[in-house]
Amino acid sequence: MSVAPAPPARPGLVRRALRWTVPALLIAVALGVWQRERLWLGYCAERLERAPDDQRPMWADKLAAAGEPAVPTLLALLRHDDPGVCTAAKGGLEHLVNDWPADDPRRLAFARTFVEAEPRFSTPGRSAALDLLPTVVATGDAEVAQRAKGMIATAARSESAELRVQAVATALMPGVDALETIVPLIGDPEAGVRRAAILALGPVRDGQSAVLSDDDLLHCLHDSDGEVRRLCEMCLRGRGRSARDIQLGRRYTAPNPAERQKLLIDLSDEDNLDVTVWLERLTADPDPAVRAGAARVAVERKADLYARLDQMSRTDPDGTVRRIAEFYKKKMQATR
Hints:
By secondary structure, this protein is mainly alpha-helical. The chain has a domain at 263-336. Helix content is 68%, strand content 0%.
């Protein structure tokens, strides 16, 4: 049985098909051209993630070569848990931003985008981001600088000891000016972090006021780590404190009340020191025996502490100390 030939296509159907197909093809081509850059950036980012460490900088440079449109892609890579990916992304961002002139408005736009994206960075991403902070704060924008300090404070609270040490180093970087954010690290559980914090906060630099007080440093003389104690003493000497000052300060800040009572004996025999300030501090000691002893030595050394003894006689939380202060207040009043 023969098969009948198919009827020829009608010209009207062909024209209608072409009417819709050609515009669709043109739109697809236009979209491809428009999305080409985006597709290229996505391709480079994927290759960077999958590449060995020694090839990742190459893909980061390819991203940087795309200019400002690559910034979101590179920042997104800082969310990665792989330190190698984050390091490569940081290098790409450095390459990208450093190609812009210092007064280029793109630098400020980048800095603002950077601090907005930071809360979503991974731990290795935050580590890489800290290295970029000097470039970020160089824009001079006050809000960016404040957000940068917040980044350092966040890093100082990280579970990673390495990141906490890096927070100390970043706070010291020129232009960052964030030493106050790392003060809590002098009490860090890790000795290495405490050492870094003492080295950063202990010296008083030219033109700067001390962020860490002498009293805070004196407490560090009792640190469980010998190197922290050595660094602390070195910083105190750098601040002009004598060996005798440090010896008295060590006893004044001793955790053991018996050691602080020994300071009263030292002050009783001290001939070349104004003991009034030391004794006034000891009248506020947490231990009642030390406060009572300070009242006695104040009378023996004729220290000008009548007003303080009067206050102690009325307000000290320990009844025995109040009575002792009243006794020595009267004795001091009789000899004035």
